[in-house]
Design goal:
globular; alpha+beta; 12-stranded mixed sheet; 301 residues
Length: 301
């Protein structure tokens, strides 16, 4: 099951991804088929409803497949504008730094491999959707970089979560490009400014429910820039697994439905290449993760 936020003719709606590049307008389908108006207005509200809403979606999907009148609530991908599945996060995005050994080494040396989970955050205003342009911020940076990452979406509220229980708190997964201004990151010695430029967190295209990703450690992650493969990693190579990350954050911070955790990036970022290859206006960044999909964004002019 895959949930998205999208726009059609200026109207924002919550969509269920169907087969053959189609997206179901949940609210309009519910009204047409059941004469109901109970669907939530945001993906976070959908997540908060838990299994009750998932079961409702399964019933709705079944009815749609039987229906012959789908024109009013089933759209082609080519007709919509993608937004991030969670366009307005309620809090900063949690991000894990240097969670792949070779990435830590490419930005430093073996001494930079962390012994403990390394965390920073990106502001909610960084978030954009699939196919939306990334602002190059040429007045601020000449070292804009990409980082393809698997992101975890939290499904229920929790604190002091054990590693053994951690996956029970996962709703699903999406893709994030942790766009980074390396020169700002170096200058300020902290990550927030270099990681939190507006449009520096492309996300999507949708959230895949965890039931469709039985093992998040069997996923290949590939990043291309203008068709050239830059990153070709695998989630099995995370230093700190998802369970460890969730447990670590939750020891002193309450996690809530809709919280987003970016789990780190593999080797192959622009700064780590010899010579470095930073993003420039017109570049196209594509991040593909098995079982999740492809997130694509162009650097604006």
């Amino acid at each position: 099951m895959r949930l998205a936020t999208a726009q059609l003719h200026g109207r924002t709606f919550i969509g269920l991804i169907m087969e053959e590049n189609k997206i179901l307008d949940i609210q309009r389908a519910e009204k047409k088929l059941f004469d109901l108006t109970s669907a939530p207005q945001t993906v976070i509200e959908c997540i908060e409803m838990g299994e009750k809403f998932i079961n409702h979606l399964k019933q709705l999907e079944l009815w749609v497949k039987k229906s012959n009148e789908t024109e009013s609530y089933l759209y082609s991908f080519s007709d919509i504008k993608w937004l991030a599945p969670i366009p307005n996060p309620r809090k900063n995005i949690f991000c894990v730094g240097k969670n792949y050994r070779e990435h830590a080494i490419e930005l430093g040396s073996e001494s930079d491999i962390p012994e403990h989970v390394m965390l920073f955050s990106k502001a909610p205003t960084t978030v954009i959707g699939h196919e939306e342009p990334i602002d190059p911020h040429l007045h601020l940076t000449r070292e804009l970089d990409y980082e393809g990452e698997l992101a975890v979406i939290i499904g229920k509220k929790g604190k002091l979560i054990s590693e053994e229980e951690a996956m029970d708190y996962v709703y699903g997964y999406t893709i994030i490009n942790d766009v980074t201004a390396r020169d700002l990151q170096t200058r300020h010695k902290q990550f927030l400014l270099g990681k939190s430029l507006d449009t520096s967190c492309p996300m999507g295209p949708y959230i895949v429910h965890k039931s469709a990703v039985p093992d998040p450690y069997t996923l290949n992650l590939m990043t291309k820039v203008n068709g050239e493969v830059r990153q070709n990693g695998h989630t099995k190579d995370m230093i700190f697994p998802i369970e460890k990350v969730i447990s670590t954050i939750s020891q002193g911070t309450t996690l809530e439905p809709g919280d987003i955790i970016a789990t780190g990036t593999p080797a192959g970022v622009g700064k780590g290449l010899k010579p470095a290859k930073y993003l420039k206006p017109g570049d196209v960044v594509e991040i593909t993760i098995d079982d999740i999909g492809t997130l694509c964004n162009k650097i604006g002019e």
